Amino acid sequence: MTLRVATVLSAREWEARLVSAARASATVRLVLRAFLPSEISDRVDELDVVAVGSETPWATPARLASWQRLGIRVVGIHPAGDRPAAARLQGAHADLVLADDLPAEAMLREIRLLEPSAERSDPVARLFAVTGARGAPGRTEVAIALAWIVSGREPTVLVDADPAPGIAVRLGIPPRPDLADAVDGVHAGGVVPDDCLHPIGRLRVLPGAHRPGEPSLRSEPVFDVVDAARANACVVADTGPWSAGMEIVKSATDAVIVIDGSPLGVVRAAGVAAEWSGPPPLAVVNRVIPSLREDVRIAVRRWTGLDPAVLIPPTRHVVSAARRGAAPPRRILGLLAPLLVEAE
Fold first, then answer.
1. In terms of domains, do 213 and 256 share one?
2. Is residue 134 situated within a structural domain?
3. Cα–Cα 20 to 30 A to 197, which of 108, 143, 290, 334?
4. Buried/exposed code over 169-182 (b: 16+ C-beta within 10 A; e: otherwise)
């Protein structure tokens, strides 16, 4: 069997040398030279091996583990003599660790000795990604309500991945530790530290990172946190406005688009649907005036091509719950509960 190989682009010479040797050889097939982690995720079914350098900032233990769970062998390349870099790759459980001064032909020979993974298994736990157009259609409340429902069935983590996070304020929990602290923990050890997860009943919540004066988190480490949390629990992620959390959405088992029930909200949602990349989404239409339910349903179908799964009427209980840091209103929980059946 010819191994299907991808390399992660690098400014170091090893990657270009390995690519040239692979193209000149019939023993492996070079499928991809990736710049972003999403490029590998998009073609996972076409790959057996990924070669990545220790210099790649997003090649974290969590990222390598996610590839391995998908049945991909990982070859880590480190600068010759750089023991800390080699130790990081070994600690991340790369299947093969090589120094970059090894001749390219020798690298290929070592790679060929790797046996393709016998099984390709997705993470056991489900990932619900909640997204929507810009303009506050109600993503946060829907994400909280879904997580609340799921936590009654299985261990669940609610992750606020919105670049403008609001779950901590909504639920009245401390803002720290937050997503940025979890990124540090996952980068160091491949798991989300327990002290980053705030318990609320049966639900555990990871607040978003909002630190004035500091840049927003990049999408790659945020995805790593979500993927690491998913190794031990179901995850519900508020990904923020489309397309901020696209990588999370594309990797989700279930996706929800929250649509504001106004004419402008439906038009904005049409833009999201036109660019959609991910599992078939369920449409939740929020703030629908009862007398206009059928008109809104028809408009959503016409403009987005989606059949609304849930229509939520305007309710003052949401505002009241937000002020008190309380659980989602029972009415919203009752409307969203059937989504879990539909998604199964």
1. yes
2. yes
3. 334
4. bbbeeeeebbbbbb
